[in-house]
Amino acid sequence: MFYNGAMALDRDLSVAVANALASRAGPRSWAAWEMLAATGVRALRVLNESGLFSSVLLTEANPSAYRVLEANVARFGPERARALLRNARSPPPDAPFDFIDLDPYGSPAPFVSSCFDSARIPSVLAVTATDLRVLAGADPTACERRYGARPLRGRLAPEGGLRILLGWLARQARSRGVGLRPLLAYVGGHYLRAYVELFDEAADRDFFVSTVDPRDFTGPSIGGTTPVGPLWTSALVDPAFVDLLEVPRSAARPREAARLLELLQGEARVEAMFFFEANELAREEALASPPRVDEMIRRLSERGWPTARTHVRAGGFRTTAPRAEVAKVAREVAEPASRTRPEAG
Hints:
This protein folds into two domains: 4-267, 3-Layer(aba) Sandwich (Rossmann fold); 276-340, Phenylalanyl-tRNA Synthetase, Chain B, domain 1 (2-Layer Sandwich).
C-alpha cells in the first residue's frame, strides 16, 4: 500500500500507540480485530511487542494473502491469534472488540459500519484512508458523495482531508449514540491515519464538527468563498496521550519515528486549525523574502500565542494567533532582512 519506508514508520507508530494504550489502561488486556489483515504484519508485530492485546482476530478475504496470513498467525498459537478467511463488511462472531484496525486500500467507507458495529464501548479504532485524491480535493464530487463533505484544495488540503475523515467518523459515531475523540490523527504523506476513542455519548456532549466559511475564518487563508466541510474543528491529538508515546526499542525507522513524535508532541500544545508557511506569508504580504520560521515561532510564543512546527508540511507552523497578528509578526521578522539587502544599481 505504501512505499517500504512509510510502511515501516507507520508500523513503528502503531507499536508506540499500543504501548501508550497499555500504559494508560494498566493491567487490562484487550481483544483486537485487524479487519483487512493482508499478511498480518502490523497486528502481529503489535501483539508481539506491546503487551496490549490478549488476543487478535485477523481477517482477510483474498485467498492468496490468507494462506500467508494463516502461516504467520500459526507461530503465535490459537489462544493469542486467529486467522479467518472472510469479508470484513460484516461483524465477525468474536465481536465486540476493544481495539479495531481498519486499514483499507483506498477509502474506509465500505467497512465503517462493520467497524462501529463490532466495537465495544469504550474502545479504540485505528482508521487509515489512502484515497487522498478524494479527501484532499482533486475529486470534490467523490468527496461529497463518499464523505458528505466539500474538500479544501491546495497546500492545506491534506490536513483538510484528515479533518473531513475525523468529522465523518464523528458523525458516524453520533448516529449510533456514541461519542468520539481523536487520540492521535496525522498526515502520513500519501495516507491519513487516525486513532480515535469511542465513549458513551452521555459522558460528553461536545461535538466539534461543522463547516468552515473562508470569509469568516481567522486562521491561515483556506481560499475560496464557499464553506468547506463539515470537518473536525478541534484538536487532532490528545496532548496527555501523545506525551506517552515513545519510539519502540524495535523501531525499524527510529530517527524518523523520533522526529515525528517530537513534532506531534510540540504540535499537541497548539489547538489551531491549519498552519502557516513562510513562503505563503511572503507572497500574501509582498515581503522581499520569507520570514524565518524559528523566529516566527519565537516571537509569537513570546507574545502569548502557542506556536509550534507542524508534522503536516516541512516549514509549516501552527499557531493560535489570528492571521492579522501572524502577518504583523512576519513583516517585523522580514523587515531587518530587507533593510540590509543592497540596493540595485
